[in-house]
Amino acid sequence: MPAEVKPLIDYVVAPPELAWRLAHIGLVEVQKGYKKQKHLKPGQRLVSLSGDLWRWDGLVVSANSFSQVSQHLTARNHLKELAEKEIIIRNEALRFAAESEAVRKIVHDARQNERYYIQQRRKIQKQLSKSEKVLAQIERVTRESHLSVLHDRQNQFISVLAQGASKSISRTRQNCLI
To answer: For residue range 138-174, what is the model confidence (pLDDT) as tens digits?
Structure first.
């Protein structure tokens, strides 16, 4: 130990297993700790009554700073929070994956329905086109048959007129001959 520094073993009664460690830890006032740290040998430490620590390798932990235990607990609590958040995020990811799969299925079904209705529309359009052709033929045949009927009636009328005219002419001739 540096000069004017008493080891902790002088202040406490401890089992033999701790005697060596306590012999290498010195008790100092805060102001002297920084000065005496330069004289520490490997493995030696200085502590103050308020909890400051000076180690031989240059590490200084102020009593006002977090202790290693509190740092460890803070880190452990932070890891616990992160683990909880990870579970939440994983569950959300699974939910999003399920929703995504459901949407993918809906889109797939909609596309199949669209294809089916497009095919049905094409069939209906073909049937409509055939129906329009048949209707046009019916109209043509109807027109032709009306014309034919009219033509036949016209011929009948002409024939009746011709017969009537012929009879008239014959009567007139007969009357003229008389």
So the answer is: 888 888 888 888 888 888 888 888 887 778 777 777 7
Domain ranges of the chain: 6-65, 66-144
What backbone torsions phi and psi does residue 154 show, to the nearest 5 degrees? Answer: -60, -45
Q: Six-digit token pair at 152?
A: 């036949």
Our CA dihedral for 121, 123, 127, 133, rounded to 10 degrees, sits at 90
Environment class of 91 (CB within 10 Å of its CB; exposed 0-12, middle 13-18, buried 19+)? exposed
Q: Which two tokens stand for residue 15?
A: 């089992």
| Structure token pair of residue 158 | 């002409």
The first and second tokens of residue 88, run together, are: 């939440």
pLDDT in tens, 113-125: 999 999 999 999 9
Distances (CA, A) of 132 to 67, 119, 143: 94, 20, 16
